[in-house]
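[job 0412] stage=complex_fold ligand=adenosine-5'-diphosphate status=START
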Amino acid sequence: MLKKEIKAILEKSKEWGWVLEPDAQKIFTLYGFKTPKYSVAREAVQAVSMAHQIGYPVVAKIVSPAVVHKSDVKGVVVGIKDDQTLIQTLERLSKIDGFVGMLIAEMVKGLELIIGAKNDFQFGPMVLLGMGGVGVEIYKDVSLRMAPLKDRDADHMIQELTARKLLTGYRSSEPINLNALKKTIVNFSKLMMDLQDIVESVDLNPVMCTAKTCTVVDSRIMLKK
Ligand code: ADP
Ligand code: MG
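[job 0412] stage=complex_fold status=DONE, emitting structure tokens
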């Protein structure tokens, strides 16, 4: 069952046909996923105060109903360390089409993975796991399963990745917490079942995983037309 707050966000988002990142992040937080600390600012004083609350370094991102792929319009700046850079970034981002605010988020570290799902009209949600970042387009290293997923399915999906060695510790890289990843995948499948009637696709790209935990750093929810 979806919480009232989640339903309200989805209802409001129908206006654009997709859920803006701050709202999508709220949904994922309410549904039990780990997300970075974040706030949305519209002007400089507010932005600075929010960044201080979160603690530098921070990430700044454009929030606009007209911008689905934020990097494509240079709408993401990572590693902001001071007020001046933050204010300059706000000035630049506020000129982007449809600007409604600038999301300021805590910097997260970890191995970038993608967890996504397309809602097939016949089969329902097909869940995808793959390596995130640029790798996802180059290597096409992904595994797919029909939701709902059990722990064991999530396990198999991880094992199917060619790059699984990167998850279990390769050379100097630390192994990630596979249990946290499995939990994230299974919870995602559960959410997809709950959203089945409403969404076309959902992408968590990236989810950042460390030896401790997995954090949803960016999320996109496309609603059915
Ligand atoms: P989009 O996919 O819309 O272009 P993202 O929010 O995914 O925008 O940001 C692009 C990239 O910036 C991510 O793939 C990630 O590498 C980095 N990034 C975004 N948010 C954070 C964060 N909170 N901490 C660390 N890196 C981030
Ligand atoms: Mg992204």
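The chain is about 35% helix and 30% strand.
[job 0412] exit 0
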